[in-house]
Design a protein that fits this description.
Length: 337
């Protein structure tokens, strides 16, 4: 719509879209509205809109993903997780154990990471383990512990949901639903998470292309949930020296293609604690809006992912380095202006 379009002109276009049996999705920007017309072959109906007042131009969204595309929403999406803003320029650190193993280790970790500047507590209650014989998580007990840690520290809570039937339960405790790499194409889960009303962090499938990842985000967005955070967590390559290969390219590329915030998980992405710090800095320098970092009071004793978990001391060093990096990036941005 043109930037002078009146609200009733926007409404008339929306009504026309519905009349044609298509789906309107309006994105309100600072100076103008963009009305997405969703439906097979929608662009063929463009003549039906030609005479309506207030329209500036009718363009075809060329990408297969629509609501996730920058073409539909030019400005960055900023997601408000109870006052913690993701995508708004600040780097949000989400830290905590891979799995919640008990209340004491969780509280100790939560207190520590909160004191060092993390804003969100991570911790798996339902673990999607490669082997059925590995620790599967403490389930609802762990969710209760996460809620207790939130009450004491003020950290928001992110945790994974692995089946559609658990979405309601997990959403009762979590501030953000994590959808894991092994479930990126579990479309029933994506849709159920989309209907939950909670922000969703969608990890990239370990063997998925960027287009498949954005189409998976589209499943959540098309349920009316606009709060999707994308998480690059490493992909499978021929390399075996690291657990996965973190795709740094994906960060600036996805930010070109999409308005959604991109965060990075350098813990799964490397599989090795000593690489987590340097790769975190690289991710932030490349434009990540946040980091998901595994921290454990005693990584050697962890029930899952100990080899990639930071102890408290290493986490502290990372937070100091991050502070210096974001300071330097801010200086660079002000020089450019
Ligand atoms: C995790 O965050 O602990 C996890 C299981 O992640 P992913 O789905 O990326 O393997
Ligand atoms: Mn893990």
């Amino acid at each position: 719509m043109s930037h002078q379009a009146r609200p009733e002109q926007v409404e008339a276009v929306v009504a026309k879209v519905k009349e044609l049996g298509l789906r309107p999705e309006t994105s309100l920007g600072e100076d103008r509205a963009v009305i997405g017309v969703i439906g097979g072959n929608a662009y063929a109906y463009r003549e039906a809109f030609a005479h309506l007042p207030g329209i500036q131009e009718i363009v075809q969204i060329t990408k297969p993903f629509k609501l996730a595309s920058r073409e539909w929403r030019p400005q960055d999406t900023v997601i408000d997780v109870g006052g913690v803003k993701i995508g708004g320029g600040e780097v949000v650190v989400m830290a905590g154990p891979c799995s919640v193993e008990g209340v004491e280790m969780l509280m100790e970790t939560a207190r520590h990471v909160a004191a060092r500047g993390a804003r969100i507590l991570r911790g798996g209650a339902f673990k999607p383990r490669t082997s059925p014989y590995s620790f599967q998580g403490l389930g609802e007990e762990a969710l209760k512990m996460m809620a207790e840690a939130r009450a004491e520290t003020g950290l928001k809570v992110i945790t994974e949901v692995i089946t559609p039937a658990d979405v309601e339960l997990v959403a009762r405790y979590a501030d953000v639903l994590q959808l894991g790499t092994r479930n990126m194409q579990n479309y029933a889960l994506l849709q159920e998470a989309g209907r939950s009303g909670k922000p969703v962090m969608l990890k990239r499938g370990m063997s998925s292309t960027i287009e498949e990842w954005l189409l998976a985000a589209e499943y959540v967005l098309s349920q009316g949930n606009r709060n999707v955070i994308l998480c690059e967590r490493g992909i499978r390559t021929f390399e075996t020296a690291t657990r996965f290969t973190l795709d740094i390219n994906a960060i600036p590329l996805v930010r070109e293609l999409s308005h959604l915030p991109v965060v990075v998980d350098p813990s799964q992405g490397t599989g090795k604690w000593s690489l987590v710090g340097p790769v975190s800095l690289a991710a932030v320098a490349a434009g990540a809006s946040g980091l998901l970092i595994e921290v454990h009071p005693h990584p050697d004793d962890a029930l899952s992912d100990g080899a990639q978990s930071l102890d408290f001391e290493t986490f502290d060093r990372l937070m100091e380095d991050l502070g210096r990096l974001t300071g330097a990036l801010a200086d660079r941005a002000s020089l450019r202006r």
